[in-house]
Amino acid sequence: MTTPASLPVGTKIRYGGDYNPEQWPREVWDADSRAFDLARIETLTLGVFDWAQLQPAEDRYDFTQLDAVVDHVEASGRQYVLATSTGALPPWLARRHPEVNRTDFEGRRHRYGQRHNACPSSPVFQRLSAALAGRIAARYAGRRGLVAWHVGNEYGGACYCDLCAAAFRARLRERYGTLDRLNAAWNATFWSHTFTDWEEVEVPNALTEHWRGPDHTAFQGITLDYLRFTSDAMRQNFRDEKAAIREHDATTPVTTNFMGMYRPLDYHRWADDLDFASWDNYPPGMREHARMALTHDLMRGLKQGAPFWVMEQTPSTTASRDVNPLKRPGVLRLWSWQSVAHGADAVLYFQMRQSRGACEKYHGAVLDHAGRTDTRTFTEVAALGAELEQLGDAVLGARTPARVALLFDWDSWWASEITDGLNRHVKYPQVVMAYHRALWQAGADLDVVAVTADLSRYDVVVAPLLHLVKGDVAERLAAVAARGGTVLTSCLSGRVDEDDNAFLTDVPGPLAPLVGLRVEETDSQPPGVVNRVRLDGLDGVVSEAGLVFELPVTEGAEVLGTYTDDFYAGRPAVTRHRHGDGEAWYVATLLDDAGTAAVVRAVLARHDLLGPYADVEDLECAVRVRDGQRTAFLLNHRTDAVEVPAHANGTDLLTGRRITAGERLRFEATDVVVLREDAADT
Known about the structure:
By secondary structure, the protein is an alpha/beta fold. The protein has three domains: 14-160 and 226-391, TIM Barrel; 404-606, 3-Layer(aba) Sandwich (Rossmann fold); 619-681, Immunoglobulin-like. It contains 17 helices and 27 strands. Strands 10, 11, 12, 13, 14, 15, 16, 17, 18, 19 and 20 form an eleven-stranded mixed sheet that branches. The longest helix is centred in the middle third of the chain and has 27 residues, at 220-246. It is globular and about 75 Å long.
């Protein structure tokens, strides 16, 4: 049996993006192709939203237009990613089978419109989407330009219709087996919720268990299971289409484009079904370099550190927000190189040419409505294309030499944000980002991984807000410390089991023996209320903490930081506990950036894991390694210039310049150096 490729084979970092020539007259296509040549663009994504064109009626398919597009792209010498076109319903399908339209959180059945508009549990949608994927695969499998299949597009949303309710009940029967087990998992004796028939189970929405929106639920267990169900239902849609492709093409890699830290879908549950990970990088602001580093690392971690693709990024501006600022000069190049530094083997755009109409007509594109090649945007795109061509295959397939792991867990995200009684101003991604930012600024090479990941190769494991503890993660974290590593976790961790029921023991539950303390009380305060933490064990740093203040009682742990304010002044806030040959740190509050950095750097220093530019703010150094060859990406995210001594001997692959360790390197704002380190320095 032929094994599918895990990543499309290429000779360089792939460069290109979403192209929709069906939106323009044929005479435009040749002009576009000449422009793509100027920009060194060799890979296009085709057919993402073509369902209505490819299947104008349930019993009729028409591939005339897509045939012409594929022929034209191949004739130009370019390759392409071919989509299954199922990211949006055609109007005839919604009208003929109205049950495919989603029902929203308020219980309203939607009519036709927008995209991401299909009920994932609809048998009609399941049948027709898989059939279309199979038809496309049968027609285009084996074409010389095809490098990957793109299933759906940016899966997301939720449906609460009767079909989803029935599918939810079926999933519950599969998961729990008996109603007794279900009732126990949901603590159903509370508020007279004991179920005596599977048909009594309702979907949790505004008409049932929720009262102030999706995050306010009377029964966290029910809502948590529905979040899992929704993610798995869309995952099954993906699997159905992939299976249809595999009937005609056993080897070409299959993916879909994720969206980074996207709350509705647990991408870790999806990861095994993708041949390679890909995602769309649209940061919410203009100073998002640390956040992007986290999301790149998260996507790379989905496939155990294998390279991923940036399937979409804007070359200039987006069109989905109230205000859509331009990328400043040099930022496109800087952010693109950052993605490569963190493991991207493709840098693709949305979109190649601006749409003439509808909601994305002002979204940035490589080519504007006039198709000009003398704009600033096109000039920067072409310059980056030339650099990627010059780089060639130097880092293809290279991996990050991480000795630090940061745990990211959708179950903890969901459970911590749908619960009452803690602090609704605490947002899981923000807590994770605070710790990742401290690791990133300190220059640590790290992986962002699931709680189920193999932790045996890491010296440091950081598990912030590990609210829901499932499986054997507590034992595996203890093993990290026992063999000499360091574990760092935070407040609100170890609170509930996989059913979102509190452990009937002291907080932090199964993590307590590892961290050597118990949490006696938890104080929750609104934004703006500050309690300072004096880190006497860390050079006396004083941190302004907020939102959550746990009051631990140490049971073997050493106190490194104490609260200075309120009735619990002098109580422990930061502790360290010896465990085996290693140690475990516990941070009982949400420290500010300075406090978080002090803790993280102390942990990294124990293992000599601080990066060479750890003390230079916003100068990033990320490393990829292939066959023992180290390539360091030096990226200046500052708004001003900075000068530093080079950390190693090597050659800048972008300029050919030889660099000697210790020589002064000057980085202007947005500057990039790709340093192939000499073997003697590795």
